[in-house]
Amino acid sequence: MTEDFSLKEKRYNRLITIVSIAIPLVVALLFGYKIPNAKPLSFLPPIYASINGLTAILLIAAIIAIKNGRQLIHRRLMMINIVLSALFLVMYVAYHMTSETTIFGGEGPIKFVYYFILMTHIVLSISVIPLVLITYSKVYLDDFESHRQWAKYTFPIWLYVAITGVLVYVMISPYYPY
Hints:
Four Helix Bundle (Hemerythrin (Met), subunit A); 5 helices; about 180 residues; mainly alpha
Protein backbone atom coordinates (compact mmCIF):
# COMPACT_ATOMS: atom_id res chain seq x y z
CA MET A 1 0.00 0.00 0.00
CA THR A 2 1.33 3.40 -0.88
CA GLU A 3 1.48 6.38 1.43
CA ASP A 4 -1.08 8.15 -0.77
CA PHE A 5 -3.48 5.21 -0.33
CA SER A 6 -2.89 5.16 3.41
CA LEU A 7 -3.54 8.90 3.68
CA LYS A 8 -6.76 8.63 1.65
CA GLU A 9 -7.90 5.70 3.75
CA LYS A 10 -7.22 7.62 6.98
CA ARG A 11 -9.25 10.58 5.68
CA TYR A 12 -12.14 8.32 4.68
CA ASN A 13 -12.03 6.53 8.02
CA ARG A 14 -12.08 9.83 9.92
CA LEU A 15 -15.08 11.02 7.90
CA ILE A 16 -16.84 7.66 8.31
CA THR A 17 -16.33 7.83 12.07
CA ILE A 18 -17.74 11.35 12.27
CA VAL A 19 -20.77 10.55 10.10
CA SER A 20 -21.40 7.23 11.89
CA ILE A 21 -21.56 9.02 15.24
CA ALA A 22 -23.31 12.17 14.03
CA ILE A 23 -26.24 10.50 12.24
CA PRO A 24 -27.54 8.50 15.24
CA LEU A 25 -26.98 11.47 17.57
CA VAL A 26 -28.79 13.93 15.30
CA VAL A 27 -31.62 11.45 14.71
CA ALA A 28 -31.97 10.88 18.47
CA LEU A 29 -32.04 14.62 19.14
CA LEU A 30 -34.53 15.34 16.36
CA PHE A 31 -36.63 12.30 17.28
CA GLY A 32 -37.18 13.85 20.71
CA TYR A 33 -38.10 17.27 19.32
CA LYS A 34 -41.66 18.03 18.23
CA ILE A 35 -42.27 20.92 15.87
CA PRO A 36 -44.81 23.14 17.65
CA ASN A 37 -48.26 23.23 16.03
CA ALA A 38 -47.08 21.08 13.11
CA LYS A 39 -49.65 18.97 11.34
CA PRO A 40 -48.69 15.28 11.70
CA LEU A 41 -47.15 13.92 8.53
CA SER A 42 -49.21 10.74 8.82
CA PHE A 43 -48.82 9.93 5.12
CA LEU A 44 -45.08 9.23 5.54
CA PRO A 45 -44.92 5.80 7.29
CA PRO A 46 -46.23 3.79 4.32
CA ILE A 47 -43.88 5.73 2.04
CA TYR A 48 -40.77 5.12 4.11
CA ALA A 49 -41.78 1.49 4.68
CA SER A 50 -42.06 1.14 0.90
CA ILE A 51 -38.60 2.68 0.57
CA ASN A 52 -37.30 -0.02 2.92
CA GLY A 53 -38.99 -2.69 0.79
CA LEU A 54 -37.55 -1.23 -2.40
CA THR A 55 -34.12 -1.07 -0.78
CA ALA A 56 -34.33 -4.79 0.08
CA ILE A 57 -35.28 -5.64 -3.50
CA LEU A 58 -32.53 -3.48 -4.98
CA LEU A 59 -29.92 -4.90 -2.58
CA ILE A 60 -30.76 -8.38 -3.86
CA ALA A 61 -30.71 -7.13 -7.47
CA ALA A 62 -27.28 -5.57 -6.84
CA ILE A 63 -25.90 -8.85 -5.52
CA ILE A 64 -27.28 -10.70 -8.54
CA ALA A 65 -25.74 -8.08 -10.83
CA ILE A 66 -22.25 -8.36 -9.31
CA LYS A 67 -22.38 -12.17 -9.28
CA ASN A 68 -23.12 -11.96 -13.03
CA GLY A 69 -20.19 -9.61 -13.62
CA ARG A 70 -22.34 -6.51 -14.13
CA GLN A 71 -20.24 -4.06 -12.11
CA LEU A 72 -21.82 -0.88 -13.51
CA ILE A 73 -25.34 -2.06 -12.73
CA HIS A 74 -24.18 -3.17 -9.27
CA ARG A 75 -22.57 0.19 -8.61
CA ARG A 76 -25.65 2.12 -9.74
CA LEU A 77 -28.02 -0.04 -7.69
CA MET A 78 -25.88 0.41 -4.59
CA MET A 79 -25.82 4.18 -5.10
CA ILE A 80 -29.61 4.14 -5.42
CA ASN A 81 -29.78 2.18 -2.16
CA ILE A 82 -27.67 4.78 -0.37
CA VAL A 83 -29.92 7.57 -1.69
CA LEU A 84 -33.04 5.60 -0.68
CA SER A 85 -31.62 5.09 2.80
CA ALA A 86 -30.98 8.82 3.14
CA LEU A 87 -34.54 9.58 1.93
CA PHE A 88 -35.90 7.08 4.43
CA LEU A 89 -34.00 8.76 7.23
CA VAL A 90 -35.24 12.24 6.33
CA MET A 91 -38.87 11.05 6.13
CA TYR A 92 -38.59 9.01 9.32
CA VAL A 93 -37.26 11.98 11.28
CA ALA A 94 -39.82 14.36 9.74
CA TYR A 95 -42.66 12.03 10.72
CA HIS A 96 -41.43 11.70 14.30
CA MET A 97 -40.87 15.45 14.62
CA THR A 98 -44.54 16.03 13.79
CA SER A 99 -46.25 13.00 15.33
CA GLU A 100 -46.55 11.32 18.68
CA THR A 101 -44.94 7.92 19.11
CA THR A 102 -47.30 5.06 18.30
CA ILE A 103 -47.43 2.29 20.89
CA PHE A 104 -47.69 -1.31 19.70
CA GLY A 105 -51.05 -2.66 20.87
CA GLY A 106 -50.54 -6.37 20.29
CA GLU A 107 -50.84 -8.78 23.20
CA GLY A 108 -49.21 -12.07 24.09
CA PRO A 109 -46.28 -13.60 22.20
CA ILE A 110 -46.66 -11.26 19.20
CA LYS A 111 -45.70 -8.36 21.47
CA PHE A 112 -42.34 -10.02 22.22
CA VAL A 113 -41.84 -10.82 18.54
CA TYR A 114 -42.55 -7.18 17.62
CA TYR A 115 -40.18 -5.74 20.22
CA PHE A 116 -37.44 -8.24 19.31
CA ILE A 117 -37.73 -7.25 15.64
CA LEU A 118 -37.87 -3.55 16.55
CA MET A 119 -34.85 -3.66 18.87
CA THR A 120 -32.67 -5.66 16.47
CA HIS A 121 -33.78 -3.36 13.63
CA ILE A 122 -32.77 -0.25 15.60
CA VAL A 123 -29.41 -1.61 16.78
CA LEU A 124 -28.48 -2.94 13.35
CA SER A 125 -29.68 0.21 11.58
CA ILE A 126 -27.14 2.15 13.63
CA SER A 127 -24.36 -0.38 13.01
CA VAL A 128 -25.05 -0.55 9.27
CA ILE A 129 -24.12 3.12 8.81
CA PRO A 130 -20.35 2.65 9.22
CA LEU A 131 -20.50 -0.73 7.49
CA VAL A 132 -22.07 0.78 4.36
CA LEU A 133 -19.68 3.73 4.40
CA ILE A 134 -16.59 1.55 4.87
CA THR A 135 -17.70 -0.90 2.20
CA TYR A 136 -18.45 1.95 -0.19
CA SER A 137 -15.16 3.73 0.57
CA LYS A 138 -13.21 0.65 -0.49
CA VAL A 139 -14.50 1.15 -4.04
CA TYR A 140 -13.14 4.71 -4.09
CA LEU A 141 -9.83 3.41 -2.83
CA ASP A 142 -9.82 0.80 -5.64
CA ASP A 143 -9.48 -1.86 -2.95
CA PHE A 144 -11.99 -4.29 -4.39
CA GLU A 145 -10.80 -7.26 -2.35
CA SER A 146 -11.48 -5.35 0.90
CA HIS A 147 -14.76 -4.17 -0.59
CA ARG A 148 -15.82 -7.79 -1.15
CA GLN A 149 -14.73 -8.78 2.36
CA TRP A 150 -16.66 -5.93 4.01
CA ALA A 151 -19.68 -6.56 1.76
CA LYS A 152 -19.99 -10.11 3.13
CA TYR A 153 -20.99 -8.55 6.47
CA THR A 154 -22.62 -5.34 5.27
CA PHE A 155 -25.05 -6.94 2.81
CA PRO A 156 -26.90 -9.30 5.19
CA ILE A 157 -27.13 -6.66 7.92
CA TRP A 158 -28.40 -3.99 5.51
CA LEU A 159 -30.88 -6.47 4.02
CA TYR A 160 -32.10 -7.42 7.50
CA VAL A 161 -32.56 -3.74 8.40
CA ALA A 162 -34.52 -3.09 5.19
CA ILE A 163 -36.79 -6.14 5.61
CA THR A 164 -37.39 -5.60 9.32
CA GLY A 165 -38.23 -1.96 8.60
CA VAL A 166 -41.14 -3.20 6.51
CA LEU A 167 -42.11 -5.77 9.18
CA VAL A 168 -42.10 -3.15 11.93
CA TYR A 169 -44.37 -0.94 9.81
CA VAL A 170 -46.77 -3.79 8.99
CA MET A 171 -46.96 -4.81 12.65
CA ILE A 172 -47.48 -1.29 14.06
CA SER A 173 -49.64 0.20 11.31
CA PRO A 174 -52.96 -1.00 12.81
CA TYR A 175 -52.16 1.11 15.89
CA TYR A 176 -51.49 4.40 14.11
CA PRO A 177 -53.96 7.07 15.25
CA TYR A 178 -55.28 7.91 11.77
